[in-house]
Write a structure and sequence with these properties.
alpha/beta; Glutaredoxin; 7-stranded mixed beta sheet; 7 helices
Length: 231
């Protein structure tokens, strides 16, 4: 089930990379805006795009928020789009999406509670059609050029890595090979804020899943660097 009711490792493939990759052409997918309009990704191809995924209950996304705001401020020649996807850590206070109306309400709540400067929030459908195309991880980031080609993909957004990729893109405009990167360590104050907002049961689910999450992420890195581990 796409909109899972509690976080568990089975909901994510942390060993094998999935979704569209650097060098691919992105489909002209559609989404909703905060004011309820239907738009396509092609409506934004007058500039290169930085596309990030996130949700109100995603601590990893929240941990990159300030740094992403700075990047958006420093790179006005890019459109920074934030795709609202499923709740990373649903709980009693912010539960799994049951309708597109609920999803839109939560996206608007993110816009008012968190400072999303110089970035445009867009909303995936209730079944996560676009999210699945991208790879369905909670906080991914892409650079897409004006021809719709994926220039850069990071399965776990890191603003420092993204900043370097933006600089490289401005120089050579060629696809950048995806590299495995370590998951950022949990930011305790931010995680506290997220689980207080989503519900303490969401925090409990995360703590229970964390050891295997780390293990499978590290194993995925080994599979990428040493293919024999995948066999």
């Amino acid at each position: 089930m796409y909109n899972y009711t509690k976080f568990a490792n089975k909901e994510y493939n942390l060993v094998y990379s999935s979704g569209i990759k650097s060098g691919d052409i992105v489909p002209n997918f559609s989404f909703l805006t905060l004011d309820g309009l239907n738009k396509n990704i092609s409506n934004f191809t007058d500039k290169p795009i930085i596309l990030e995924t996130g949700s109100l209950s995603c601590g990893m996304f929240a941990g990159q928020n300030k740094a992403m705001n700075r990047l958006a401020s420093e790179n006005k020649d890019f459109d920074f789009l934030l795709l609202y996807v499923r709740e990373a850590h649903p709980g009693k206070l912010i539960n799994a999406h049951n309708s597109i109306e609920q999803k839109c309400d939560l996206a608007n709540r993110l816009n008012t509670e968190d400072i999303i400067e110089n970035r445009t929030i867009i909303i995936d459908d209730i079944n996560g059609t676009v999210h699945k195309i991208l790879g369905a991880l909670p906080n991914m980031v892409y650079i897409i050029d004006t021809n719709g080609q994926i220039i850069f993909k990071d399965e776990w957004n890191n603003a420092k890595t993204l900043k370097n990729a933006i600089q490289e893109f401005k120089i050579n405009r060629k696809p950048i090979e995806q590299k495995w990167a370590m998951l950022p360590l949990p930011n305790i104050p931010i995680e506290y804020k997220i689980f207080k907002r989503a519900g303490w049961d969401a925090g409990f689910d995360f703590i229970v899943a964390l050891p295997k999450l780390i293990f499978f992420h590290l194993f995925g890195g080994l599979c990428g660097k040493y293919p024999k581990f995948a066999n």
